[in-house]
UniProtKB/TrEMBL annotation:
Gene3D superfamilies: Glycosidases. It comes from Mucor flavus. InterPro entries: Beta-glucan_modifiers, GH, Glyco_hydro_17. SUPFAM superfamilies: (Trans)glycosidases. It holds the Pfam family Glyco_hydro_17. It catalyses: Hydrolysis of (1->3)-beta-D-glucosidic linkages in (1->3)-beta-D-glucans. The keyword Iron does not apply. This is glucan endo-1,3-beta-D-glucosidase.
Amino acid sequence: MFKALLLTTLVSITTVIAGSNAFYGLNYGVNTNACPTLEEVKHDFRAISQYTNIVRIYSVKDCDLGDLALKASQATKLRLYLGMWVDKTDSFDKELSALKRISESNPFYNVEAVIVGSEVMYRGDLQSSELVDRIVKVKKLLKSQGTKVTTAEVYYKFTPEIIGAIDFVMMNAFTYWEGVPIEVAPDTLLEHYRHVQSISNGKLVRISETGWPDQGNQNKESIPTPENQKDFMLKTLCITKEQGIEMIWFSAIDESYKPGVESHFGLLDSTRKLKSEYTYDRLMSPC
């Protein structure tokens, strides 16, 4: 009876902690031409941990980020999505080797899932069957770990073959890149989510990327300003929380090493400070 009571208490505490974050998750990228140290990743993760308990990376091989992120996330008590970059080159083989190495030398107790590829179908880098083959290889590697495996893809590029191979669905949708006006952008995102739900065969669907820039060039009717980023962020947080949708915001930090508008999607600025348009309390209560 004591064990049952303890388990119930721990579940309740976990639920409270999970529900106390502004974001379900945040995406984290690094400059591969200036690789961070472990202490720098820890510093970034401590900043991120004020707003979420989940962080996603895009590659385990680049900058040896898989190893760094595992160590940093465990030190900062974050859960982690490990990404594997997949394209037309031999990147997958290198990612698989890196994943094998870190899975054999690090505990995976805080790894939420491994994401095999990001927008592979959108870029046309592989055929659907080729991506599925890579997903299966990762599943075999991690079978003893019990780690879930998926891919991240734009909302209109999933195939039945891919849906069948993954443990749950992660969809990307950027209404800014569609040129949608800010007034309808959050509802348009929700429409995309419902579409993916309709083809998911009942599997859980999460939003792996969405966001809005606060500077840069206008894209059709999408205008990047601090006010529009704030509007999209708060309304999207409100909708996803009300609908019980788990959403990973792109991105955690402004990526100043990227060109143009792509460097201005962050919740935090390049100095790791919360942008002046936001307050912690408002992010926690967006509706």
